[in-house]
Sequence to fold (331 residues):
Amino acid sequence: MAYMLTILLIQVIEIGVIDWPHSIVLLFMQLSIGAAAGFALGYAIVWIINRINVPNESLYPVLLFSCVFFVFAFTNLLQGNGYLAVYIAGLVVGNRKLVHKRSLTTFFDGFTWLFQIVMFLTLGLLVNPSELPAVAGVGLLVAIFMIVVSRPISVFACLLPFRRFTTRARVYISWVGLRGAVPIIFATYPLMSAEIPNARMIFNIVFFVTIVSLLVQGTTVSAMARWLGLVGKSEEKEIFNVALPDEIKSAMSEIELTDEALSGGNKLMNLSLPDNTLVVMVKRGEQYFVPKGHTHLQSGDRLLVISDNDEELRKSYESLGISRYTMRKNR
Fold:
């Protein structure tokens, strides 16, 4: 939507008037074709990756990355919104069973952070610091308006149909503002057009507003969550870096033993765990070993547990007084 509004406003500035019928048709085409292409191509990507037999596992990220470019280019060729198509295709791929999904996720997570850094550094080269003081006044007014007025109104309006969001949650979402490189990238669009007056000033204002939001909102996200009482229980850090294939319908969890959990006995066989549950690894200090039924356990030991009954396993943890654990489920 930000992309569509940017293109529309550039058209208004260049032409001076807006062709509403054409703009509405264009908006409908962009969103509908983009959404349809995203869903269709997303499922096609899943089908291709799961059925193609690449002998080298490291080539799967390259394959998926090339699919991203294809989705964007093909959707644009169909007069659809390529950004929307890539976004929806990513949702489809990320929520389906995929071979080598763990390695793909790790690759794209690091790749995303790398490109964000590269984008900020590259876009920073377009800014002349000496020009920013001239737009500081206008930039501050725009930033304050966006932080205090426009973003809260838009967030509350968009979340109005969703009853499960509390008022505090809506306020928190309103506070998570404009802090990425995307608005700066869109601000380069006027720079690419020779017919946009004051394009440089527009770019400088957008850059200034983004920096203000980054400094004000970006540095206070955690503090705002604590102030609104929205800080949940932090997840335990995983010790065993193990993943099960998606085909295995089991839950893998890591627990830390306490004195209360060992009150019924300090042997593995004394732990009250559900049927079809295995303790496959124990970490004690810096040592890892595979336990047996008569293995003596100690408070502070970390256990890797696999079970096909995660609900019963959670109840067992509660009865044993184990509160520190992580759990991953394959479905």
Summary: The beta strands are 251-256, 277-284, 287-289, 302-307, 325-329. The radius of gyration is 26 Å. Residues 251-329 form a domain with the Alpha-Beta Plaits fold (CATH 3.30.70.1450).
